[in-house]
Write a structure and sequence with these properties.
By secondary structure, the protein is mainly alpha-helical. The chain has helices at about 5-15, 25-30, 40-45, 80-85, 100, and strands at about 25, 60, 90, 95. The radius of gyration is 13 Å and the shape is globular. This is Methylated-DNA--protein-cysteine methyltransferase.
């Protein structure tokens, strides 16, 4: 059996992010044992539109809570709307109370 590719490993973690919570590209990379690969996590989020089951990519923000990937959603406001629908407050493209809403991904064992 072939191990899952990097994007699939990212998606497995992103699907675990609880509704109303956020995590960062870097936190996902660290959970995968690839701490220097946060940019690759971003590429995975950009490609997530075609993944099945769906990926809640709107819950992944940069390390200070900024919606840096918002343009990948096809609309400059869709990412914010999706987060706000889950009760997350956004001001000036940034998650309010980021430290409280931050979800630390568990270390991925590759299964």
């Amino acid at each position: 059996m072939e191990p899952p590719n990097f994007f699939e490993q990212v998606y497995r973690i992103v699907r675990q992010i609880p509704e109303g919570r956020v995590t960062s590209y870097g936190a996902i990379a660290r959970a995968l044992g690839a701490g220097g690969s946060s940019r690759m996590v971003g590429w995975a989020m950009r490609a997530a539109r075609t993944a099945h089951p769906p990926i809640p990519a709107h819950r992944v923000v940069n390390r200070i809570g900024v919606l840096s990937g918002k343009m990948a959603f096809g609309s400059p406001i869709l990412m914010q709307q999706l987060l706000e629908n889950e009760g997350v407050t956004i001001v000036d493209d940034r998650v309010v109370d980021f430290d409280r809403l931050f979800w630390e991904p568990p270390l991925d064992d590759g299964k």
